[in-house]
Amino acid sequence: MNENITRRNALLAQKVIKGLASRNMTGYYAGSREAALRLALALVGEGASVTMGGAMSAHEIGLVDALKAGNYHFIDRDAYEDKRAAMLAAYDADVFLSSANAITEDGQLVNIDGNANRVSAICQGPKKVVFIVGMNKVCPDLDSAMKRARNVAAPINAQRFGLDTPCCKTGSCMDCKSPDTICCQFLITRFSRHKDRIHVILVNDNLGF
């Protein structure tokens, strides 16, 4: 990554980390995907039960492959015939992995979900939630974070899943009520009541959507 972008990202990350701390959440900055992977595995801890939502960022840093190959109990919902059982298992896991559709400079996390398994696990259930978030998802404020989630993340994910929504055709949110919509629940995580539960790894890279 360009040296000037890296310098800017490192400075901006410290602002976000300070914002997260004010909200009873813990932030970290990883200068590379490799550093993010090492940090994520340390936060998970060997022997832990781990599951996740549809976090492309966790795949991109190699975290999912490392969990499958290592001494962890990885609950892979893709390996379950009963998808509901896999989703319910997430609530009793030691660690839930996620990314964010957007994060504000003052530490608020924004996520949009269709089935709610991801946002509900972020809210309650797993003992620890670890977010993998590329610096491309940092937004100045909550309004811009919501716009990013709706106009960047949601259309790309709808296209990725092959859904029939207006945003798949236009590339931006049409505030639809399509049967295929994935914009069913909007979660803003502005504070954590439980100290040491939510951990956010900011990565000096463009990750996810």
User: Strand arrangement, largest sheet?
Assistant: 1-10-7-4-2-3
What Rg is obtained from the alpha carbons, in whole angstroms?
Answer: 16 Å
Q: Could you describe the largest sheet, including whether it forms a barrel?
A: 6 strands, parallel
Integer count of domains: 1
Structural category: alpha/beta
Total strand segments: 10
CATH class: Alpha Beta
The overall average pLDDT, rounded, is 95
Which residues form runs of ≥5 with pLDDT under 50? none
Fraction in beta strands: 15-25%
Query: What is the CATH topology?
Result: Rossmann fold
| Secondary-structure element string | HEHEHHEHEEEHEEHHEE
User: What count of helical segments does DSSP give?
Assistant: 8
- Report the CATH superfamily: NagB/RpiA/CoA transferase-like
Proportion in helices? 25-40%
| Amino-to-carboxy terminus distance | 18 Å
Instruction: Tell the overall outline.
Output: globular
Q: Which second-level CATH architecture applies?
A: 3-Layer(aba) Sandwich
